[in-house]
Each structure stands twice: as C-alpha cells, then as structure tokens.
Write a structure and sequence with these properties.
482 residues; 16 helices; 28 strands
Length: 482
C-alpha cells in the first residue's frame, strides 16, 4: 500500500508503476483505493462509476476496471459538499462535515472492506493506494482509506514523500512520529519522490531519514518530465499552461469552478501542433483558435459563473467570428438554449438560459447515465471509443448528430465544422476526431492514444525499476500470496 505524507506526493503514479511492474513480472495485480475524492471519473464495462485514477491503474495491470477497485468515490458539487458514489452508483449528497464527522463512515468502511476482500480473491497482489496524509489526527479514527484499511488487508505499507515541495525531513519524521505503534509496524519502507538533480547529493539525507525513523528508504525517484501518466485530480491543474503562445494552435479549455474529467484533453496537451491552456481570463480565451467548454459537476452554477465573469460573451464572440467552439458533457449542455433542474439535483438554481449556440434544451435528471460507448464520428468509418457520465436529457427539434453509437442511436449535435457538442467523454482520445478538429494536413503516422499510454506505462515501470528496490518489496511479502 502506498500512503503519503500529504496530498499530491505521487501515490497514484507510483501505484500505477508498480501495477505495471507486477504485470510484467507475470503476476495478476489489481489496484484498490477504498475512498477517492475526484471530479475525474470513469465508466466501468458494467456502466458504473469509479475514480479515473483506478481505471488508469487497472489499465496498467491489463485488467478491466470495476467498482471493487474504488468502492467509494466523492465528487465535489461545491466547496463544502460532495456526491457520494457507492459501488458505482450515487447514493446522495453530503456536506464535508456530515461525511467526515457523521456516523455513517463505519458502514462505508464495512463496504470498502467487502470490496477489498472480494477483489483479493481474484487478484494478487492488490496494489493499494491511500489518500492525503496518514497523520490527520483529528480525522484518522474515522479513516476508511489509509492505515485502518491497511490493517484490515494486512498490507505492507510504503510512505511516499514529495521532496520537490521542500521540508522532506520534517514531513517524513513528523508523519511517522504521529503514528500509533500498530500503524508504525505496518510501514515497511519510505520512498522519496520527485527528486531533481544529482541523486547522489541526497545520500547523506537518505541515511539521516533512516537513522531518524529506523525504517529503510527503498528508493529516491527522480522527477520525470518525459513520462506521461494521467493526473488524478484538480491539484494538477495548477501546473497547466494558462496563456496563448505564438506559432501553435491555441486551444482554451474554460476553467470552470466545478470542472470535471479534464483528462478529456490530455491527448491534445501532448500534441506538438497544439498549445492547450486552461483559463478563466476573458482576454486569453478571446485569443484562442479553439474554445472548449469542458464537463462540470454543477452545470447551472458554472453557467452562472460564465455570465457573471464575462466569459459567456467572449465565447459567443469567438463563435460569431467562426472560431471553433465545442462542448463536452456539461459544456455541451451549456451551449444550448436553456438548462433546467426541476428536481434540484445540483442545488437551488432551477433554470438558466444557455449560451444559445446550439438549438438544444437540457433537463437534469435524478438518474445518472454511466456507460462505455463504441461509436462512429460523423461520416468516418473507424470505430471510436469513449464513455458517458452525466445526469440530464437533451432534446432538439431536428438532430444533426455528431456520433452514431453501435446500436445505431445518434448522439450529440453537429452544427457545422466549427461547432459541436457531445456527451461522450474521451472523444478526443480518437485520432480521427483530433485530426478533424485540428484540420490537420499532416501525413505523419502517430501512435494511437492506446499505444501511447501502453508505452508510457512501460516507461514508468522501467523508471521505477531503476530507482526503487523492487526485490525488497517482493521479500516483504512473507505471506506468499503472490
């Protein structure tokens, strides 16, 4: 199990890398995170919802993702409340206080343990991931994802610290010092992550940490900028580009307060023709060649945000100048004539006019649609892949479909070559869609997105083999479960 001295220390990436290593070594691994908080989610083959990070880790393992890998998912709907997803289905919204201080955590913990027990009967090893810091003294007696989960699983635990943040000695020593004896006994090793420069310069630091903690440092992982693995959550948005650049196709993703599934745009971010940037700055968005309205966990609130911040008029201006404007999921809904929420699924706003770009009308529903999709993009013959996660029904008088699903159902709205919308997340992972969007005349052969991801899982595995004591991890498994 990989746990952290704090959030964003690299637990998800390390978990992904070890999943790949175990697969390469002939084992049958699977990922597990009892509770995840993220707006990046994914639809399983059974049409259920889990955190995107666990879907990525399952892909690195070479196995289908399922809800047992992430039995509890929290999707923030505001700064103080989240939708609670249990075993892939929403069970309601709760405030942070209700969730973290309420009495239902023990029931959720029991569900998480059942999911782990079931998963561990089919896969070995189960590569577990914690959340945040393991030393949150005011909350850890209600913990269902870190050390209590590790105790239930009898897991070998590895503490991950981010040296790039600074204060690595204090964060490692303080974290371990605040653990109870039973927790400390589970810690088998320490990993120093995101090191920049000559690693030999940290030899003395490594010895100091081992002396202070009496726990071995099993590796120092160099900061790798040439390996690409999807980011887990919105913390990573702080590192993204925010402005236009010269001599590139500038694509602006509107930075909505409740932006979700921004992994939709990862392939564009890696395209050498493109400068993809995230912005809520009207002047920067006005300069973009292509504007994308992304998914959101709160369509009406973010639609209100577009109007109050002056972004709606900029998006409309770009559209009227015949620049490309596209919308995905909640962004697609915003592009219509209006959005209604008669059941109050998103909050107190019940109806708002949309941007009026597409002749569509959306009514939000209590039921959530989660499904993987194979489809054909416009008049192309290649089979494309994506997934839907949304709450809402979109209507139109006469549909101009963007996609045709395998069951011949038509989906989305294609207004013209410069403007379209869709419910399908991952649509931009398909080369035929990207090339149409960019109107590329390049004949250069590029790897498919799937090939690109598989190559990077292997690169990550090689990177970790070179800097971690993988044999030590194997020798700690005294239960001979693998």
């Amino acid at each position: 199990m990989f746990v952290g001295t704090g959030s964003d220390v690299g637990k998800s990436i390390l978990t992904t890398g070890l999943c790949r290593i175990f697969k390469q070594d002939g084992l049958h691994p699977a990922p597990f995170k009892a509770q995840n908080m993220s707006l990046n989610s994914y639809a399983t083959p059974n049409g259920e919802e889990i955190g995107r990070a666990q879907a990525v880790q399952a892909e690195a393992c070479g196995v289908p993702c399922d809800t047992r890998m992430n039995p509890i998912l929290l999707k923030p709907t505001s700064h103080q409340s989240s939708q609670v997803i249990l075993h892939g289905k929403p069970i309601g919204d709760q405030s942070a206080k209700e969730y973290f201080l309420g009495n239902n955590k023990e029931n959720l913990f029991n569900e998480a343990k059942k999911a782990f027990d079931s998963l561990s009967k089919e896969y070995a090893p189960v590569v577990m991931e914690g959340a945040g810091s393991i030393s949150e003294l005011n909350l850890k007696h209600r913990d269902i994802v870190n050390m209590r989960m590790a105790k239930h699983a009898n897991a070998d635990v590895y503490l991950v610290a981010d040296i790039d943040k600074g204060g690595v000695f204090a964060s490692v020593y303080g974290t371990i010092a605040l653990l109870e004896d039973w927790e400390r006994r589970l810690i088998k090793g320490i990993i120093i992550n995101k090191f920049r420069g000559d690693i030999s310069l940290f030899d003395e630091g490594r010895k100091k940490i081992e002396e202070l903690t009496q726990i071995p440092v099993i590796g120092v992982v160099p900061f790798a900028q040439d390996i690409y693995i999807e980011d887990e959550d919105s913390v990573a948005l702080n590192t993204k580009s925010t402005t236009v650049v010269a001599h590139k196709i500038n694509i602006a993703v509107v930075l909505l307060p409740h932006i979700s599934n921004y992994t939709d745009f990862n392939i564009l971010e890696r395209d050498e023709r493109v400068n993809l940037f995230y912005s809520k700055n009207a002047s920067e968005i006005a300069k973009a060649d292509i504007t994308i309205l992304p998914g959101t966990k709160n369509t009406l609130s973010d639609l209100h945000f577009l109007r109050t911040q002056g972004l709606a008029s900029v998006i409309l201006s770009n559209f009227k100048k015949h620049k490309k404007v596209i919308g995905i999921c909640g962004g697609y809904q915003m592009m219509g004539d209006w959005v209604k929420d008669p059941h109050g699924v998103e909050g107190t706003l019940t109806e708002l006019p949309g941007l009026g770009i597409l002749p569509i009308k959306t009514t939000l529903t209590k039921e959530k649609k989660t499904v993987q999709q194979n489809f054909f993009y416009r008049n192309q013959k290649q089979v494309c892949k994506g997934y839907e996660i949304h709450m809402g029904i979109t209507e139109f008088k006469q549909q101009m479909p963007l996609t045709t699903l395998e069951n011949n159902t038509q989906e989305g709205y294609w207004l013209n070559k410069n403007c379209w919308g869709t419910y399908i997340h991952g649509i931009l992972d398909n080369a035929v869609v990207i090339d149409d969007l960019l109107e590329s005349v390049s004949t250069e052969k590029r790897l498919s997105h799937q090939e690109f991801k598989e190559n990077n899982y292997d690169l990550l595995a090689d990177h970790l083999r070179n800097c971690l004591d993988i044999n030590y991890i194997y020798t700690q498994n005294k239960r001979n479960e693998w």
